[in-house]
Design goal:
Largest sheet of chain B: 8 strands, mixed
Number of helices of chain A: 13
Structural class of chain A: mainly alpha
Largest interface: A-B, 21 and 29 residues
Strand content of chain A: under 5%
Order of helices and strands of chain B: EEEHEEHEHHHHHEHEHEEHHHEEH
CATH topology of the largest domain in chain A: MetI-like fold
Largest sheet of chain A: none
Number of strands of chain B: 12
Structural class of chain B: alpha/beta
Shape of chain B: globular
Shape of chain A: flat
Helix content of chain B: 25-40%
Distance between the termini of chain A: 6 Å
Radius of gyration of chain A: 24 Å
Oligomer: heterodimer
CATH architecture of the largest domain in chain A: Orthogonal Bundle
Helix content of chain A: over 70%
Radius of gyration of chain B: 21 Å
CATH class of the largest domain in chain A: Mainly Alpha
Distance between the termini of chain B: 53 Å
Number of strands of chain A: 0
Chain lengths: 305, 343
């Protein structure tokens, strides 16, 4: 088990470097750079800038320098926010994204699991049809639509919640719901499908034949097998929720990582883009690993060597 | 409590139907039989003949919907199981009536330790503490012949072989010393040598605990040495019911004769092609008005197509569902006399 975890952790390093390389390549392929503007710079000034940032060197040297710095976990300074290191910027903006993300995750999990389990138990009931229709709606409604609708209703219509910006618990409610909706819907459907599958299996019949009541049959015998598909989904989901979602942060003007990422892309702020991409990819891989480890706890048949 | 006449179980005109897109499937359609205390009865039939549904009905384990017990009494020890509340049925399940299922590979919960799965039965029904239940689990595993039970009790089902898992299932079923054990094809998923061991085990435990047993199978060889009485089912109906020896010697139903002929006899038929009943079991959603076995029957006549056959009483313990039950019975007696004359 330990060697399995260690191996998986080690794999993260080359994977992250690969992701960074591809991202770097894409940035370079796109025409223009941070310094290009509509106004043509005098040739001497441009040459100076190129020299200062090492842009006059051949591309492989530039790539090598960048990689060496990244291996030292130093992404350098942002080009746009002069004097601020990329690490510092990520550290400053991550808590906003993480707060919204974790709350959304917990909300999605709580409601999604409950709704899925009840829907499975009362298959073909009004609750089943109702919650699954709602889930379908949640899945099909993009959050850039849902967000403004919620703002329109609760902030601009009823005046009970702030429409945007950061400040106090009330400002969290709308973005958390907007962010959670799609995950909630997905978890509810996965839970329902998983539970339906498991509750039809032979060992559930055995449990019933033992005289156990439905609650015990469900929670002790059914749930573990039923939520395995949910676990596979929620690991990577948590990673992307923590890292902030671009759209929701934009809609609600939350100064999180997602918002910064967009700015970085628009500004062609290469070090910042690479830093955030590397951070996200590492996060996703760690959560995938966490999912794989938790399989081992859920299902005794899974053993890692 | 009403009169039981020494019967632990009386099933009377049981009908269990399933609502499907294809129409109503009469999986069990008017089954009647009794089981005495300590007796073993065999239920034989092809797949889909209603054997398992009969027994799931007794336990009230029919998934509802789509299934439903639409008629009949299931009198267990003087009490009609059909009239009990689900809470009272749960007090019987696992404690007084226990079940062993066909496939030990899927009938144990793969996520829970063997100990947990054994302990929860006695904790529930016998009020065992954790420690008592644990010790009892080990004792039961030893009883069913699992070597090194003390250390294996904490294992998971996937660490056991098929035969060992079926032993665990038996240990689980017998942990509360039930009055009735329903074994639903307990050996079908196992290989032949293990089959014999498991049957021997059930036989021994039955005499040790005084349990009545319903043994469901499609293998006549399995029931022959185990049961006192056999019920032959076809298309949700009892086709023949008779004491085991009599059913084997002098069957009074063409279907039973077909089944018996299908049992390979390596001593006399070496090199010959194996016999099989022609045709396929009927679609129980669309049964014709006549005898459901008529299309496959060697002696079917016009009346078999037109009219549903009567349940003919051959003698006190022997009944057969056939227009020509008496004739078939006479045939069988003649054949038997012939055979013994040759030998």
């Amino acid at each position: 088990m330990l060697s399995f975890i260690l191996r998986r952790l080690l794999i993260i390093i080359p994977m992250a470097l690969l992701v960074v390389t591809v991202t770097w390549g894409l940035i370079r392929i796109a025409p223009g750079n941070f310094y290009s503007s509509e106004k043509k710079l005098p040739a001497a000034v441009e040459a100076n800038i190129q020299k200062k940032y090492g842009l006059d060197k051949p591309w492989y040297q530039q790539y090598g320098i960048m990689m060496l710095n990244i291996l030292k976990l130093d992404f350098g300074d942002s080009l746009k926010y002069q004097g601020q290191s990329v690490n510092e910027i990520i550290r400053r903006h991550l808590p906003y994204s993480a707060t919204v993300g974790i709350l959304a995750y917990l909300l999605a999990l709580a409601i999604g699991l409950t709704a899925g389990i009840i829907a499975a138990l009362k298959q073909n009931s009004a609750f089943d049809y109702g919650s699954m229709a709602l889930a379908m709606l949640g899945l099909s409604l993009p959050n850039f639509v849902l967000g403004p609708i919620l703002v329109l209703a609760f902030a601009l219509g009823l005046y009970i919640l702030p429409p945007a910006r950061w400040g106090g618990i009330s400002s969290l409610i709308l973005p958390v719901i907007t962010l959670a909706a799609i995950y909630m819907a997905y978890i509810a459907r996965l839970t329902r499908a998983g539970m339906l599958e498991v509750m039809r299996s032979d060992y559930i019949r055995t449990a019933r034949a033992k005289g156990l009541d439905e609650k015990t049959v469900l929670l002790k015998h059914g749930l573990r097998g039923g939520i395995i598909p949910v676990v596979s989904f929620t690991g990577p989901a948590l990673a992307s929720l923590l890292a902030g979602t671009v759209v929701v942060e934009k809609v609600f003007a939350i100064p999180g990582l997602g918002n910064i990422f967009i700015q970085a892309v628009l500004n062609r702020d290469e070090p910042l883009i690479l830093g955030i991409v590397a951070f996200l990819s590492i996060l996703i891989m760690i959560f995938n690993l966490a999912v794989d480890i938790s399989y081992g706890f859920l299902d005794p048949r899974i053993r890692y060597e | 409590m009403s009169e039981t006449n020494g019967h632990i179980l009386t099933v009377n005109d049981l009908k269990t139907y399933f609502q499907t897109e294809d129409g109503v499937v009469k999986a069990v359609d008017g089954i009647t039989f009794e089981l005495r205390k300590g007796e073993t009865i065999g239920i034989v039939g092809e797949s889909g003949s209603g054997k398992s549904v009969t027994n799931l009905s007794i336990m009230r384990l029919i998934p509802e919907p789509p299934g439903k017990i639409v008629n009949g009494d299931i009198i267990f020890d003087g009490v009609d199981v059909r009239k009990l509340s689900i809470e009272d049925v749960r007090k019987i399940r696992g404690k007084r009536i226990a079940m062993i299922f066909q496939d030990p590979m899927t009938s144990l919960n793969p996520f829970l330790k063997i100990s947990t799965q054994l302990m929860e039965v006695t904790q529930l029904h016998l009020g065992h503490t954790k420690e008592q239940a644990y010790q009892h689990a080990i004792k039961m595993l030893e009883t069913v012949g699992i070597p090194d039970a003390k250390s294996r009790v904490d294992g998971y089902p996937h660490e056991f072989s098929g035969g060992m898992r079926q032993r665990v299932m038996i240990a689980m079923a017998l942990s509360c010393q039930p009055e009735l054990l329903i074994a639903d094809e307990p050996t079908t998923a196992l290989d032949v040598t293990i089959q014999a061991q498991i049957l021997e085990l059930i036989k021994n435990l039955k005499s040790e605990f005084g349990t009545s047993v319903i043994l469901i199978t499609h293998d006549l060889g399995v029931v022959a040495g185990m049961t006192e009485k056999i019920i032959v089912m076809y298309a949700g109906k009892v086709f023949e019911i008779a004491p085991t020896a009599e059913l084997f010697a002098t069957p009074a139903n063409p279907y039973t004769k077909g089944l018996l002929k299908s049992v390979p006899d390596p001593a006399h038929e070496q090199g010959k092609e194996l016999y099989q009943i022609p045709g396929l079991p009927p679609d129980v959603a669309h049964l014709p008005p006549g005898c459901p076995f008529q299309p496959r029957c060697y002696r079917a006549e016009e009346i078999c197509v037109q009219e549903f056959p009567p349940f003919v009483q051959i003698n006190e313990n022997h009944r057969s569902l056939c227009h020509f039950a008496k004739e078939v019975y006479a045939e069988s007696i003649a054949e038997k006399a012939n055979k013994s004359a040759i030998v």
